Amino acid sequence: MANTRTAPSGTPTNVTQKHNQGGIGESTLRPDGTLKVTGEFAYSSDMWHEDMLWGQTLRSPVAHAEIESIDISEALAMPGVYSVLTYADLPAAMKNYGLEIQDTPVLANGRVRHHGEPIALVAADHPETARRAAAKIKIDFKELPVVTDEASALAEDAILIHEGRDDHHAGHVPHQNIVHRQPIVRGNAAEAAKKADVIVSGEYTFGMQDQAFLGPESGLAVPGEDGGVDLYVATQWLHSDLKQIAPVLGLPEEKVRMTLSGVGGAFGGREDISMQIHACLLALATNKPVKMVYNRFESFFGHVHRHPAKLWYEHGATKDGKITHMKCRIVLDGGAYASASPAVVGNASSLSVGPYVIDDVDIEAIALYTNNPPCGAMRGFGAVQACFAYEAQMDKLAAKLGMDPVEFRQLNAMEQGTVMPTGQVVDSPAPVAELLRRVKERPLPPERQWETAGEGADVRALPGGLSNTTHGEGVVRGVGYAVGIKNVGFSEGFDDYSTARVRLEVINGEPVAMVHTAMAEVGQGGVTVHAQIARTELGVTQVTIHPADTQVGSAGSTSASRQTYMTGGAVKNTCEAVREALLEMGRRKNGSYHPAWAHAELLLEGGKVVTDGGEVLADIADILEDEAIDLELEFRHRPTVPFDLVTGQGDGHVQYTFAAHRAVVEVDTELGLVKVVELATAQDVGKALNMLSVVGQIQGGTTQGLGVAVMEEIIVDPRTAKVRNPSFTDYLIPTILDTPTIPVDVLELADPNAPYGLRGLGEAPTLSSTPAVLAAIRQATGLELNKTPIRPEALTGTL
């Protein structure tokens, strides 16, 4: 039976833009941009239904414990409460979910494994009633010892976070508290080390970073009259959510209808399930729409974070500056559940060498199960942690050899044709040395600008800013460089594809294209690019973007810098098929009137069919008349293979992308305060489909890298595994006052294997911005600084 409920307010609608031009290569404006800056854009937290209830999650106050009893009677007795659900109320045999390994309980069953794990759900007629009812649920815990680091996780008598593992990684790991292990061995690092004139080593610590998206997790579940459910939600991957949600609801996928609602940022944190299943369970239990919106405190527990890491590196080099070998071991803390940890391990290991030519390597990367908060996807996905460490090593090698750090990097930089440690050949441009040249040759900003400004001096130019703690004494400038390498798209044999449906028809006498995909628009500007592609390929001015939902095939995740490559590629391919169908229709109708229909290369421009010589043959509207062309096609990139579990060999990645940064800092060495004056960057994007969006993505990624360099870290108590700073009061992110000038230099060296020659670009700037800032602070202070973020006490020696 069809669902006849009224659509909730805030439901996404078609987005239509009309331009005279607006094709590929132009900086067309975003259709959602003005709405967002004026506060009129409908985010998922703005959704509303006239008879809806509010959902609330009760979460564990401890990190590891047995649940001995749960008493929900007081909560159920509260006026306005419609339902209270626990594990015992789950309707299907499948009670777990997960991106790759289904190890995450929908609600805790007898045991909690991390601080903030969901235990019970409440639906009530007011959000405050739901919150108070959840607080009345009584739970008796028997606390257990916590596993918080490698030593406690891998001890012979270690508590197993997950007993009886049967996932496909369990058979090849040396300890059941290791989620996944990936070694990479190429050449003979031990023998190559004997040829080194200098050897440097280091141990590096990378803190746990939060995605810190401004729009909290939220959504609205509406029960259908067919026994199914309609879910309006902010997510990164509609079809992945669907495949995890339907089994635990006990419903076929066609009865779980998902529509993307307004997303207030993601950065990897919405790739996993948060409130989706919970809202649906409450809606089906009450037969009423249920809205859930996390507050900021709960959001810190409601999504995964970036893996904190310990990294051990050794590099050797000859006296003339050639790197001889590299050894490294990377330990990622995956927390209580697997999430994307296996794939993060693959990235961290395969990209751990950096954008350098090193023939002899010995690499190991692992992810641990612990009682710390679950970690998974975040912008940069394993490559960020590695870049922080290998770039510190490059500076150490250059210093020990007495070489300029940029020239040393350029001497060892990879290029097209370089063989990666996995044996994969880099078969498209790799302008690493050129990117470094560009950031180095950019003029430096003036030093100590406050000294020449006189009475007009701005304290915001000083370390400490408006706190007015620094007056110029002890302020030292530092300049640092870094460059990184990131893969694009899903790797290691994953069947990575995207789907696009394109419809071309005449509306009010004008040809109009409708583009329908399941791509999650999370702020990256995909809806803008899809319209640009349609205008370019179909020669129309008016393009309508259909709301993303599961009524069309999967577009994959908005992650891995893949959406413009993959779903953009799907839109391009489908538009090309629609164009050919239109031309075939024109040949049938008009071919006898002009020989060019049979022999010339035909194009669609300005709503007309034209020859490559510019002769107009027909109007698109006249060819279509009352007919429509409606096609849905899939697009796949070239295949990849899993890395060998012993040697790590294999063509595991689709594409590589590169970015370099130069950081200029001024450090108050007495107070330990840092002012990042400038973060210049250069990046190869293959082809800029929309330069305005390209620059915005690069500056945004750079700013997130700045954050983890000097301020961002989730603090987890090592004794209790409890999060100590789940708020934006205590978890600091860069504001406009912290963000420096970010000049961007864009290269466009086409990748012949990619649509339009483009490269995925959103993640690469997040890699090298962090180590560039650290390198600049090291130069200013002379300190080694092997941990992020850098705090004042690390600079003043008052730890």
Automatic annotation (TrEMBL):
Region (Disordered), start-end ranges: 1-32
Gene3D superfamilies (alphabetical): Aldehyde oxidase/xanthine dehydrogenase, a/b hammerhead, Aldehyde oxidase/xanthine dehydrogenase, molybdopterin binding domain
Key words of the record: Oxidoreductase
EC class (word): oxidoreductase
EC nos: 1.17.1.4
Domain Aldehyde oxidase/xanthine dehydrogenase a/b hammerhead: 38-145
GO terms of molecular function: xanthine dehydrogenase activity
Composition-biased stretches (Polar residues): 1-20
UniProt superkingdom: Bacteria
NCBIfam families: pucD
Protein name per Swiss-Prot or TrEMBL: Xanthine dehydrogenase subunit D
Organism of provenance: Streptomyces bambusae
